[in-house]
């Protein structure tokens, strides 16, 4: 099923609630655009806990399609913006890979990556985000990830957007 990962975990490590005045369609299109720009390196973020150590961060984000995730490139973005012109979704799942690099001897060397599964549950003027940390070193904390998403969405939605973070304990 488009947009939903069949094996999304029942447990999750954090939940955030976004309250907004935008339509569900506008929020979903903003989300696709944000993830596309993060993939293309157009949208950049400065996470002090990472960048202050000379580490660069990049993202690979894919949208679910039953058992797989499709990287959001030009083609996938156009496809999803077209789909969202015709219908809205109650659930959208994504895989977000945070890639880390450090410069050494004039070359960028990769560090271990973080893998996050994101589930967005769309209500009336609210969106619940559930985050599951699949694996990795957690250089990018879940709280920092939610903050990045909040800032990116705030720029795109352009209407009042608020957020409440609900950490579910350590893992």
Describe the structure.
This protein is an alpha+beta fold and 171 residues long. The protein has one domain (14-160). 29% of the residues lie in helices and 39% in strands. It contains 4 helices and 8 strands. The chain has helices spanning 24-40, 48-51, 74-86, 142-157; strands at 14-20, 55-65, 68-71, 91-104, 107-110, 114-122, 126-135, 161-167. Strands 1, 2, 3, 4, 5, 6, 7 and 8 form an 8-stranded antiparallel β-sheet that branches. Helix 1 runs antiparallel to helix 3 (74-86) and helix 1 packs across helix 4.
Alpha-beta classification: alpha+beta
Q: Give the integer mean of the pLDDT values.
A: 90
How large is the share of residues in beta strands? Answer: 35-45%
Number of strands: 8
Count of all domains: 1
**Uncertain regions spanning at least 5 consecutive residues:** none
Major sheet: 8 strands, antiparallel
Number of helices: 4
Q: Helix coverage percent of residues?
A: 25-40%
| Mass-distribution shape | globular
**H-E string:** EHHEEHEEEEHE
- Our Rg estimate from Cα atoms comes to 16 Å
Oligomeric state of the chains present here: single chain
Distance between the termini: 30 Å
């Amino acid at each position: 099923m488009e947009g939903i990962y069949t094996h999304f975990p029942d447990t999750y490590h954090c939940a955030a609630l976004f309250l907004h005045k935008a339509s569900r369609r506008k929020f979903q299109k903003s989300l696709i655009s944000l993830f596309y720009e993060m993939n293309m390196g157009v949208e950049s973020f400065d996470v002090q806990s990472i960048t202050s150590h000379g580490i660069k961060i990049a993202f690979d984000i894919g949208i679910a399609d039953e058992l797989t995730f499709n990287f959001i490139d030009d083609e996938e973005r156009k496809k999803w913006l077209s789909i969202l012109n015709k219908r809205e979704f109650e659930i959208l799942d994504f895989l977000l890979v945070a890639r880390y690099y450090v410069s050494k001897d004039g070359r960028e060397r990769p560090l271990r990556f973080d893998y996050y599964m994101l589930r967005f549950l769309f209500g009336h003027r609210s969106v619940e985000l559930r985050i599951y940390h699949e694996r990795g070193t957690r250089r990018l904390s879940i709280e920092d990830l939610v903050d990045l998403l909040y800032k990116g969405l705030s720029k795109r939605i352009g209407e009042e957007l608020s957020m409440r973070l609900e950490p579910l304990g350590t893992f």
